[in-house]
Amino acid sequence: QVQLVESGGGLAQAGASMRLSCTASGLPDSSYAMGWFRQVPGNDYEFVAAIRWSAESTYYADAVKGRFTISSDNAKNTVYLQMNSLKPEDTAVYYCAAERGIIRTLGRTIDYWGQGTQVTVSS
Question: Residues 43-68: pLDDT tens digits?
Answer without folding.
Answer: 999 999 999 876 678 999 999 999 99
